[in-house]
Write a structure and sequence with these properties.
This is Chorismate mutase. It comes from Streptomyces dysideae. This protein is mainly alpha-helical. The chain has 2 domains: 56 residues; 36 residues, no CATH class. Helix 2 packs across helix 4 and helix 3 packs antiparallel against helix 4. It is elongated, with a radius of gyration of 20 Å. The N and C termini lie far apart (52 Å). The mean pLDDT is 92.
Length: 95
């Protein structure tokens, strides 16, 4: 195993470095999918906001946001709440 492989993976064996490298490739692919889904969510949220504002409503529906926060919190615990807050911020657009 080369020093570069050990530096990149933190592994102490070639086998472990291969496992880590393969798993990281999978994580990178998952991250790409997650980013795509977030972008799709942002687009759908923009449609909702346009419809709500067009009908005379407010841009943000706080009761709906609380539902989203609760959903993420129940599924992922406290870090889920932080993740949901970030998603909501991304999807609100500029207020």
């Amino acid at each position: 195993m080369t020093a570069t492989t050990a530096d990149k993976t933190g592994a102490r064996t070639t086998e472990a470095a291969e496992v880590i490298s393969g798993a990281r490739e999978r994580i990178d692919a998952l991250d790409d999918r997650i980013i795509g889904l977030i972008q799709e969510r942002m687009a759908v949220s923009a449609v909702i906001q346009e419809a709500r504002i067009g009908s005379g409503g407010r841009r943000v529906n706080l009761s709906r946001e609380m539902e989203v926060l609760s959903h993420y919190s129940e599924a992922l615990g406290k870090p889920g709440t932080s993740l949901a807050m970030t998603l909501l911020e991304l999807c609100r657009g500029r207020i």
